[in-house]
Specification:
single chain, 87 residues, alpha/beta, 4-stranded parallel sheet, 3 helices, 31% strand
């Protein structure tokens, strides 16, 4: 199973579990189509291998950090991405 270029840039590999927090519709669709073999969740009761949290500003980052840290495994990946759509 090949991992897409986007998944490689995020260091996400097949079999990993990834939580996507507050993804805009366009980004959620892109993530679903780019991460082959990856379990992508919008919510999870269990800790995951990685979290991609979408934010607008520094205050948003500060607000989601506690939830992100409790959602990701100790050695997991954390990415913050802009909610702004670039055209």
């Amino acid at each position: 199973m090949n991992t897409s270029g986007l998944a490689r840039k995020f260091w996400i590999e097949p079999g990993m579990t990834v939580l996507s927090r507050d993804a805009p519709v366009e980004s959620a669709s892109l993530l679903l189509n780019s991460f082959d073999g990856i379990k992508l969740f919008e919510a999870s009761a269990e800790r995951v291998d990685g979290v991609i949290a979408f934010v607008r500003c520094k205050a948003d980052v500060q607000g989601v950090v506690p939830g992100v840290l409790s959602a990701v495994l100790e050695d997991g990946l954390i990415w913050f991405a802009s909610k702004e759509v670039v055209r």
